[in-house]
Amino acid sequence: MSRLATAVRRNPGDTLLVLFAVLAFGYLFVPIGYVVAFSFNDGGRSNLVWRGFTLDNWANPCGAPGVCQALANSVQIGLIATVLATLMGTLLAYALVRARFRARGVLNVLIFLPMATPEVVLGASLLAQFLNAGVGLGFWTIVLAHTMFTISFVVVTVKARVATLDPRLEEAAADLYSSGLQTFWRVTLPLLLPGIAAAALLSFSLSFDDFIITNFNSGNTDTFPKFVYVAAARGIPAQAYVIGSAMFVLSLLVVVVGRLVAVRRTAA
Amino acid sequence: MATLAQAPAPAVAPAPAPVPAGRARRATGWLLAVPGVVWLAVFFALPIALLFSTSLMVPVPGGDIGQFQPAFRVANYTEALARYWPTFLRSFGYGLVATVLALAIGYPLAYVVAVKARRFPTVQALLLVLVIAPFFTSFILRTIAWRQILADEGVVVRTLQAVSLLPGDGRLTATSFAVVMGLTYNFVPFMTLPIYASLERLDLRYVEAGQDLYAGPWTTFRTITWPLSLPGVVAGTLLTFIPASGDYVNAALLGTSRTQMVGNVIESRFFRVVDYPTAAALSFILMATILALVYVYVRRSGTDELV
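Structure tokens for the assembled complex are given below, as produced in the milestone run.
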């Protein structure tokens, strides 16, 4: 305590800042703590009040009707949308930075606008289009919608990486009699890969977590966020908290390990 | 394709002819861009155009609920505005307050991670992970968790009542406070990350120079740190304000009918009342207002290159 007091006296600004950061992190983690805690609650179907500790929910994560189907849908939609958006977005980003064609200004606006449009408007406009075209809502309309709104994020992420690419490397490959395709596979793509991977991760998580656009274009197909939203009226089954907690722990592990490896590598 | 196939040939020749090469490059550029552009045209631009035409439609005479025909009824807009302007004001008010609060929380947080933790790369990497960690659980799940935490019979409300910060019959859910708190909570990471990106590149020698010239901490911050972090602040406030004022999940889960936002009205006009023209007109007013605000804001903040 006295050491803390000395530290505060010596540098009050810094100490206040650090205290503030601790409080802010606390704020960010309160509901996550709640989700993890209530995944262990013996609370029955509605899971509203604490009724005692149990591991049953973790032993049987698909116990609540529909929860695992919703999760499977979310994962499949996320994967398909990610592949499509990453492919198209990467090509588009490369074209925008490298190729000199006249429509670039217009294209940049076309890519920026979906990000500046509120999700309700994106969802509502696509719904109007599907209704008009007589397309039945479901799994594939969600895929179309998710691919649409994640392309822009892929373009922005990959563009940043293309901008740091040294064009002389590709020119050197061409000087060494490499064909256009060979240069792309051997030089360009490996150099862009970290940016493309980041973009793919981003679009998967955007797709997986999206509720608003999905709600407009899903018909009777459930995704995990939609399942939770609908269940909220009655009380969320503990299994949804189990899935939420498991997702949290898994992604945290992946990212922490990834960051630590990256820090080690730059330090070495 | 003919020009494409010829493209590698000039590499062998000592002096490649510049014109075909340029044309090939332009063609390749277009070919790469086509799939993404077509996708955005069909699933973004076309729907928006269709939404616009929907916003001017009238009901089919003698038709069922949800049947509309093309018209040019501008009154859909004036009527929607006349009826829902308080909702618009509330949406932008909530969005603005949430943005200011997220900035007040996110800026110091970003500063601690980017500047104070700079000498400890491992700590910095872990803190950065903690900032994005909330994304690893579903945001709907987190918002519902808040609703449960702030519930009338919950510990938080009971404690506040016990220390008389809240009247005996006072509550937190179903209030504007809960909605704005939920919005702020959900967007703090979106605010923190771009500010972190700006502050991470902040050259501390400028700050030291300020101190050497006898500037106090506040003056140093105001004249050096803040201006240099401005691109991050602009990006963060946009990433917060746009989705926050268009959101309807927080208002639906944490509020009541008296704290509705435009998103809630659009959603219910579409699904419950089946009044597509009004829903479309509301969407357009929301989109146009946001774009106008963003334009003015970006212009005034002097960071044009952002967009």
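The beta strands of chain B are 58-59, 68-69. Chain B has 13 helices and two strands. Further analysis is deferred to the final report.
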